Structure formats: structure tokens, C-alpha cells
Amino acid sequence: MDEKIRRKILTLLDQHRIMTIATLRPDGWPQATTVGYANDGLTLYFLCGPDSQKAANLLRDDRVSLTIDHDTAQVMDITGLSMAAHAEAVVDQAEAEKALRLLMAKYPKQISMPVPMPTSADVCVFRVTPAVISVLDYSKGFAHADLVSC
Prior knowledge:
The chain is an alpha+beta fold. Helices cover 23% and strands 40% of the residues.
């Protein structure tokens, strides 16, 4: 991967904290949901409930598509990422705790939380490993995207 595009991807990942992730339901329909995420380089982590449809979908089929972006007032300022990736449950306790620390670092200024922060025993932690990343940057032209294989 070209170093310039890698830096662009990492900058976009670091600038955001939520993504829309699509999993595959048992009936074949995609299910898109919004989740918070943190990244360690190009590896992303997110949490979900152990009894959620998303967790069940991922335990059956690890393929996901996701987007990371934000709203802009000017069309030509649109930037973002989309990925085809694989998501697998993190079973290593040390990695799960690291993922939780990374996620909390994305939200440093919480005034109050109505419930305690979940532990790795309370939630499923998933690691997302990209296969293909599309880097959207309208400043380079309308709908311009650079496609990167990982």
C-alpha cells in the first residue's frame, strides 16, 4: 500500500468514531447498523451485545461492509472510507481489554454515564480486518475514490 494513501486512511480513521457496518442476516438480507469504533492502525474494533442479531450474523458469516464518513455543507468537501472486511470475535482477554481502552480513548470527555462502562465479559468485542478499502475524496473530483487492496 502506498504510504501517502495509508496516511490518508489512518487520518480518516482517527478523525471519526462511528461507522455504519453491514452484516448478512440468515435470510440473505444485509443489516446495516451504526456502531462506535476504535482503531489500532488499520485494524478496527467495535462492541455489540452478545445476544444481538449483529453478533449472530457475524458468528455465522464474518464478511462485512462498512462506511466511515461525516456530513459536509459543501459537496466537494466529502471524504470518507468504505471497506470490505472480515470481522471476528476477539477471544483473547488482553486484546479485548485493549480494544475497550481504545474505544474509551475516543470518548475522553464524558460528563456522566447512566450505566457503568461494559467489560469484555458483558459484550462481544469484534476485530475488523479490511480486505479492500475505498478512500472517497471529492476534492480530487466528483465521486473520486482510490481503491486499495489490503
